[in-house]
Amino acid sequence: MSWWRKKRRLTVAIAAFLLGFWITACGASGDDSAEGGKPLVVTTSTVITDWAAQVGGDAIELRGILKPGVDPHVYEPVPADSVAFEEADLILYNGYNLEPGLIRMMNSAGANVEKLAVGEVVSPLEMDKEGEQVPDPHVWGNVENVITMTEAIRDALIQLLPDREAAFTDNSDRFTADLARLHTWIGEQIATIPADQRKLVTTHDAFEYYAQTYGLDVVGTLIGISTEEQPSAQTVQKLVESIKATGVPAIFAETTINPQLITTVAEESGIQLSPQQLYSDSLGAPGSNGDSYIKMMVANTQAIVEALGGRYTPFEVRE
């Protein structure tokens, strides 16, 4: 637990006692060994962990709850997550109900902690879920949204550590410059796909922001915006028929979802299943081609462009 969090938890009585003890017994030297410590920033999704690391650098202690490959929609929190929320000086979470279990726990365990719903600083797309319009939480599919969210993280960190404003600003500027290059590059890559083949079929509806921003048409998905849903046999058959009718060149599995059903759809429709799964709700494992947000978006774009008949030009990722 960071010094800032500890200090908030001291009662007035204890603080007074310690002050008197330090003055009479220890003089000015004291024993506040945590004073040189770093504030604890707790993040939920892996993409937010990456953004916070890019901006916060070594000025913060960063603890990401969700690990690479874990689906935030269905993640069941454990007691250690509650401890992290209670110890945090700042909690960064996606919002728009991306991580429902963690949001419920956060609201009960970290009532007095500063929180930022990073995803909710941008206007969402509205999606239909069982006849109700709900915000689509997959906001990072549009890289321009990530620029806005990065700036919000920068501002939250400056509020937490005002004396590190210059460092946070420099880090944010450098990262958002890379994001601006990425945004332009993705549009250029998708434009190489023949116009009648810019059609996307994935396991769940996580790519609307990406598709609408960069010029693709989401033909269909097995399930909606949350992986909690389970597709019926009728849904599978309708997707097969839609794929046959639209003539998409390939369809895509996702790294956080069992590929069995989408593989069945590919087989029944006679359409190629892309050999490269898409990163949807989580970054890849360390050392993979999707272990950072930028690398994830590059890997997804390469997979989509190559499977749909475009011409892929490598993106220079700054290490």
Structure description:
With 319 residues, the chain is α/β, with parallel strands linked by helices. It is 45% helix and 13% strand. It has eleven helices and ten strands. It has helices spanning 3-9, 12-26, 46-56, 79-87, 100-109, 143-160, 165-190, 208-214, 233-246, 260-269, 293-307, and strands at 40-43, 61-64, 90-93, 114-117, 126-129, 132-135, 199-204, 217-223, 250-251, 272-273. A hairpin with a 2-residue loop joins β5 and β6. The longest helix has 26 residues, at 165-190.
In short:
45% of the residues lie in helices and 13% in strands. With 319 residues, it is of the alpha/beta class.
Average pLDDT rating: 87
Largest sheet: 4 strands, parallel
Tally the helices.
Answer: 11
The largest beta-sheet arranges its strands as 2-1-3-4
Please bin the fraction of helical residues. Answer: 40-55%
The residue ranges in which pLDDT falls below 50 over 5 or more consecutive positions are 6-35
State which percent range the strand residues make up. Answer: 5-15%
Structural class of the helix and strand makeup? alpha/beta
Q: Tell me the Rg in angstroms.
A: 23 Å
Order of helices and strands: HHEHEHEHEEEHHEHEHEHEH
